[in-house]
Write a structure and sequence with these properties.
The complex is a heterotrimer of chains A (292), B (616) and C (315). Chain A is an all-alpha fold and 292 residues long. Chain A has a single domain, classed as MetI-like fold, CATH 1.10.3720.10. In chain A, 68% of the residues lie in helices and 0% in strands. By secondary structure, chain B is an alpha/beta fold. Chain B has 22 helices and 22 strands. In chain B, helix 4 packs parallel to helix 7 and helix 14 packs across helix 15. Chain B is globular and about 70 Å long. Chain C is built from 13 helices and no strands. Chain C is mainly α. The relative contact order of chain C is 0.14. The interface between A and B is large, with 46 and 60 residues.
Chain lengths: 292, 616, 315
């Protein structure tokens, strides 16, 4: 026990468990953006002045007006309303898929890490294979095959995520499972579930939260790419990626119809990334002054 | 002549995780004359490393110097600019880090790392630097230095790595060498070799040295003067003889008192080990391995870490399991606890055979065997409060409800000397000693018959460890419990154990009552172990090395996969042709020991009388 | 070490085989009767039956799979259902285009990002580091098609420097090549680079916190020497991992980028042939992508072993 940890431990009460890094300015922005997006996703359709498919203007890319604050899209529908309606798809599908995939991957990865032995070997081998399949190829085939319905989209993305999460969860769990307090629990005869839930999980929260964030941003981007390729949410429903695709011709005129959805996607993912960066803060302050 | 190093009123602050600055070194003054070895002694948190690093004009991230001067050869090194600082480091003053494993770059060969200071400071050419590096490695008693220089750090043993670090520090013949706990992480039999090498090479180069350690006995072998530190301040300092024989401060006296007398022939046995009907724990012919499972084939049997181990523990008895790294003692504890399946052999509790894995055992069997581990940092779940950690066995084994649990937890905490209001705290808020006590409370909460103690004192400061040992003794007297006490520290073992089992290379060398094992005749390895424990007396090192056979300097273990005795590569009494082919038979002695050796008892008695154990 | 490489190779081959099964199975679930798709809705059932038989689509799945696999191994990639031309010819035309695009992006991205990542790690917290961090963060938060469209907006529309739609790369003339490749390559470059810079920086900083770096400092090594001789060799393994991971993104990104710029490559071929249910083309293109992915991972593993003495010379 040398170094700073020595004197903090011998002065009881000076250190609490797991210090969360202080909320930096960028972290605040990230959380703010996230909160905004959640709000949009939840309340969007109720805030939207028009219905999703409602035509409000004649001609393509009508300019902004009091009834249509951001103007019209290529069919004459209200851009603002479609953005608000689409929020729940852009965030919702990604969040649902990520959460599902996360739970599946977490369970698999944790169990493999704790059981070890042949089960673990089989799981690693399976993961290797799953991870070797280019996700976009998988998505193309499955979605083209089963149709771009909501369950298929969510399911495919969840499946893709689960393999990646499983690998990370397994690594994190193995790191913790080797620690002595986990061995004490095993020697007590705690069940597999109890060891995973009581001993390992609480100590894995930070790296898992970071991984969730990374997966979420990946899902949003992937989802919007799929929409852009025509495999995402189908008309007349809107999601932001699809809106970019539909209104691409308006890009040259600087029409909000094409630009705003892209910006919103960016802001959503930026929010997630900033939050992830804050959570994962490794602190450069542990680097010697002489090495800066 | 002016002192080589003069530290005057050095004050350093360190940063807490929350960002506040607190004093960690308060007004420390130390001087080192040319050619002198000064030891910085103290427990963890005393600030010894911080002071030592100041001699290199270095502060670790999160620390800052707020007062005082450090003058090396008359030059104020704290005020130097970056380039001059770089020039001094490695050339005028060099550092030997504590953990060689982590301090050596894993992707650069040993030879290149050792030679690097010469090239950094432009002392000589590349080819010549390499030659000098190899010569230094040889001077540190490293075998096959050219071969070693070509290897990467992970291919060398701990003792070899540590000596390579010393060589690395000496390449530019610095005037001052700073050694930071260089032998702490080593086995005691390796430590003695490394000490000899360090001492020899320091004398030869005429360098001065600062030797940081927590071990008074080790320091007494190499230091001319001792500085005792505590909580960032100097408690007292003086010549080694003065400090050891005539300590003036209470703290120093405590430290000396905690260096327990070495186990010698006439130490008192502890407790009467009366005959009991049937041993509580019977470990019979257990072998264990770490070979990884392969998908379609059984694991590789040649990589066994324990081979054919038989040990008994009777009720209310303390059996010590003694061995160094690689002996398999921790693995044996894990096998008994059901954490690691035995590849062969059985473990019986009160006559009933236990299934190999903890999950297969019934609740009562699990309750009766409890285990306490070494590291206070890692033994308690950082996310669980003390009351939950101690309360869990109560819930699991006795089904106590919340209210009764709280009461019982309070009783248990009181029993181990932890204040009751700590129950709501998290482990991060406790000191190392307190955490270990909580682990003990947790083990006793189950009201076990047998407690496996796996090196529970090894990570604690000397004084704290002494207190915890005392606690263990009290608890044993008050409860109906047996201990399997695993340790590498013979002095501790001598003061608590009824019987001792000595392990080497995964095999049992010898078992028997404590007193019998610690006096000849005993297994040649036991003899080596005993003679390697430093005595708190200058000159001990030279005496021991004088009578020791050269073969003991070998620090390898013959692989278990080969038949025969694992100790044969280091044994002064080895019989070529026998010891490397046949498993040594167990020979009982009239004193109640069982010694596994090819030599007859008489031969051992005679040989060991010749290398008479050096008096404490 | 050789054993390690051979076993990785074996795993790669096994994975490839599993891929082939998966790709084949996936194409089986594509709905729509192929014969109808080719002959049209008005065709007679008899005509469709004859065509189905001729294309061998009435055989059991396992037989078709075996036939397909052996054909692939022999080099016979089948006929496109849409155009009845050999798949090998169709793919052959496109594969060079995609390879060139990917190669240009990779060759430019890798050294640039490692260099920038290293610089960032060498001066953490400096204005350079901070601004690079902000830019990378923004870029990785945008989908590739958005980056592509933004570049089009900037370079093609506003500055009128480059054409907005890709023409077939004219390998004969360098200016023609540059004109066709620039926008798609830049787009691919952007996101891959941003990821690599961030990860390289993280990997190097992680190494810089290790005890052996402190030891080098205490030996009197300069910061530059520490970075290049002590830190970088240790960071190589994680950096290689990062590079392999991102080259994998390239494989995916190529698909989107080719669609955005209507670039005549494999990615667009894949998307189009999925849409038209041209199964043989889908299968072959799919397998090519899988192979590329697997080869990259394999290469990364091998390099990781080379750069880590602990794996090279196991104790």
């Amino acid at each position: 026990m040398t170094g700073p940890s020595a004197w903090t431990a011998s002065a009881p009460g000076t250190r609490t468990r797991r210090a969360r890094p202080p909320l930096s300015g960028l972290g605040r922005i990230g959380l703010g953006l996230l909160a905004l997006n959640v709000l949009l996703a939840a309340a969007g359709p109720y805030l939207a002045p028009h219905a999703v498919g409602e035509i409000v203007a004649r001609g393509a890319f009508a300019p902004a007006s009091p009834a249509s604050l951001l103007g019209g899209d290529y069919l004459g529908r209200d851009v603002l309303s479609r953005l608000l309606h689409g929020a729940r798809y852009s965030l919702g599908v990604a969040a649902a898929a990520t959460t599902l995939g996360f739970l599946a991957g977490l369970t698999g990865g944790f169990t493999a890490a704790e059981i070890r032995g042949r089960f673990d070997l089989a799981v690693t081998w399976l993961l290797d294979i799953l991870l070797s399949f280019p996700p976009i190829l998988l998505a193309l085939l499955v979605i083209a095959g089963l149709g771009p319905t909501l369950p298929v989209l969510v399911g495919t993305i969840a499946f893709i995520q689960s393999a990646r999460v499983a690998r990370v969860a397994r690594a994190v769990a193995m790191g913790i499972a080797a620690l002595e307090f986990v061995e004490v629990a095993r020697a007590r005869g705690e069940s597999l579930f109890s060891v995973l839930a009581r001993e390992i999980l609480p100590n894995a929260v930070r790296p898992l939260a970071v991984e969730y964030g990374l997966r979420l941003s990946y899902a949003v981007l992937f989802m919007s790419s799929l929409s852009f390729l025509g495999l995402g949410i189908q008309p007349p429903e809107a999601d932001w990626g699809g809106m970019v695709r539909q209104n691409v011709s308006g890009l040259y005129y600087g029409a909000p119809a094409a630009i705003f959805p892209a910006v919103l996607i960016g802001l959503l993912v930026l929010g997630v990334n900033l939050t992830v960066d804050w959570l994962a803060a490794g602190s450069d302050r542990h680097l010697s002054e002489e090495l800066r | 002549m002016p002192p080589l190093l003069r530290i005057t009123e050095l004050s350093v602050q360190g940063r807490t995780p929350r960002g506040a600055w607190v004093a960690t070194v308060r007004g420390v003054s130390v001087t080192v004359e040319p050619g002198e070895v000064v030891a910085l002694i103290g427990e963890s948190g005393a600030g010894k490393t911080t002071v030592a690093l100041a001699a290199l004009s270095y502060t670790r991230p999160g620390t800052r110097i707020v007062g005082g001067d450090v003058a090396l050869d008359g030059v104020d090194i704290l005020a130097l600019d970056a380039r001059s600082r770089r020039r001094a480091r490695g050339k005028d003053v060099a550092y030997v880090a504590q953990g060689a494993q982590a301090a050596l770059n894993p992707v650069i060969t040993i030879g290149e790392q050792v030679a690097e200071p010469l090239l950094l400071h432009g002392v000589t050419t590349r080819a010549d630097a390499r030659r000098r590096a190899i010569a230094l490695l040889a001077r540190l008693d490293l075998p096959h230095p050219e071969e070693l220089a070509r290897r990467y750090p992970h291919q060398a043993s701990g003792g070899q790595q540590q000596r390579a670090m010393v060589a690395m520090a000496l390449t530019c013949a610095p005037k001052l060498l700073v050694l930071d706990e260089p032998t702490t992480a080593l086995d005691v039999t390796t430590q003695i070799e490394v000490l000899k090498a360090i001492k020899g090479v320091i004398r030869e180069h005429g360098s001065a040295a600062i030797y940081v350690s927590h071990d008074l006995a080790v320091v007494a072998q190499v230091a001319d003067r001792i500085v005792v530190m505590r909580d960032g301040a100097v408690v007292e300092q003086g010549s080694t003889d003065d400090i050891v024989e005539r300590p003036r401060q209470e703290y120093t006296r405590q430290l000396i008192g905690a260096v327990r007398p070495r186990p010698v022939a006439d130490s008192e046995p502890v407790g009467a080990a009366g005959p009991a009907p049937r041993p509580l724990l019977e470990v019979d012919g257990v072998s264990a391995t770490f070979a990884r499972p392969r998908l379609f084939r059984p694991p590789d049997a040649a990589a066994n870490v324990l081979q054919d181990v038989t040990v008994d523990v009777r009720a209310r008895e303390v059996v010590a399991l003694v061995g160094e790294s690689g002996s398999g003692k921790s693995t044996l504890a894990r096998v008994i606890a059901g954490l690691h399946p035995a590849a062969a052999g059985t473990v019986r509790l009160a006559g009933r055979e236990l299934p190999p894995r903890a999950r297969q055992r019934d609740r009562d069997a699990l309750r009766r065997i409890q285990i306490i581990f070494q590291s206070p940092e890692l033994s308690l779940n950082p996310e669980q409060r003390v009351e939950d950690a101690v309360g869990r066995p109560l819930e699991l084994y006795f089904g106590l409800d919340r209210a009764r649990r709280a009461d019982r937890v309070a009783e248990l905490l009181a029993m181990v000397g932890v204040p009751a209001d700590y129950a709501g705290r998290f482990p991060g808020e406790l000191s190392g000693g307190q955490r270990q006590r909580v682990s003990i409370a947790r083990a006793f909460a189950a009201e076990p018959d047998l407690v496996l103690c796996d090196e529970i004192l090894s990570s604690l400061d000397t004084l704290v460890a002494a207190q915890v040992l005392e606690l263990m003794r009290e608890l044993k007297a008050r409860h109906d419990v047996a201990y399997l006490f695993i340790s590498h520290d013979l002095a501790t073992v001598a003061s608590i154990a009824d019987r001792v089992v000595v392990l080497y290379g995964g095999r049992v060398c010898e078992t028997g009552p404590t007193r019998a094992v610690f006096s000849p005749p005993h297994h040649p390895y036991t003899a080596l172990l005993l003679s390697s424990v430093p005595a708190l007396r200058r000159g001990w090192l030279e005496e021991v090395l004088g009578v020791r056979a050269p073969s003991s300097a070998q620090t390898g273990i013959a692989m278990l996969r080969d038949p025969g005795c694992p100790f044969r590569t280091r044994c002064p009494l080895v019989l070529p042709g026998t010891c490397d082919r046949l498993t040594p038979p167990g020979r009982p002695t009239p004193e109640g020991q069982m010694i596994h050796c090819h030599r007859e008892m008489e031969e051992l008695r005679v040989a060991q009388a010749r290398e008479a154990p050096v008096p404490a | 070490m050789l054993k390690l490489i051979v076993s990785r190779l074996g795993l790669g081959v096994a994975t490839l085989w599993v891929m082939s099964v998966l790709v084949f199975a996936a194409t089986e679930i594509l709905p729509g009767d192929v014969a109808t798709a080719i002959l049209g809705q008005e065709s007679t059932p008899e005509a469709r039956a004859i065509l189905t038989k001729r294309l061998g689509l009435d055989r059991p799945v396992t037989e078709r799979y075996a036939r397909w696999l052996t054909g692939m191994l022999r080099g016979d990639l089948g006929l496109s259902l849409a155009t009845e031309t050999p798949v090998s010819r169709i793919v052959g035309l496109r594969i060079t285009n995609t390879l060139v695009l990917a190669a240009v992006a990779a060759v430019l991205a890798v050294p640039l990002s490692i260099g920038l990542g290293l610089l960032s790690a060498a001066y953490p917290g400096s204005p350079f580091d901070k601004s690079l961090g902000v830019v990378s963060l923004i870029v990785i938060s945008l989908p590739e098609f958005v980056v592509g469209l933004l570049l089009v907006l900037l370079l093609a529309v506003q500055l009128k420097v480059l054409p907005s739609m890709a023409t077939t790369p004219d390998f004969a003339s360098l200016p023609g090549l540059v004109r066709a490749l620039t926008l798609p390559a830049l787009t691919l470059l952007a996101s891959v680079q941003a990821h690599m810079i961030r990860m390289t920086r993280a990997a190097v900083l992680d190494v810089m916190r290790q005890p052996y770096i402190e030891m080098a400092l205490l030996k009197g090594a300069s910061k530059r020497r520490i970075l290049l001789r002590h830190a970088l060799p240790n960071a190589l393994a994680p950096i290689v991992n990062v590079v392999a991971l991102n080259l994998g993104y390239l494989v995916s990104g190529v698909v989107v980028v080719e669609v955005v710029f209507t670039y005549p490559g494999l990615g667009r071929l894949l998307v189009d042939s999925v849409a038209t249910r041209d199964i043989p083309v889908v299968q072959v293109t799919g397998m090519i992508f899988c192979t590329a992915y697997i080869l990259l991972t394999l290469a990364a593993d091998v390099v990781a072993v080379f750069t880590n003495p602990r794996l090279r010379y196991a104790k």
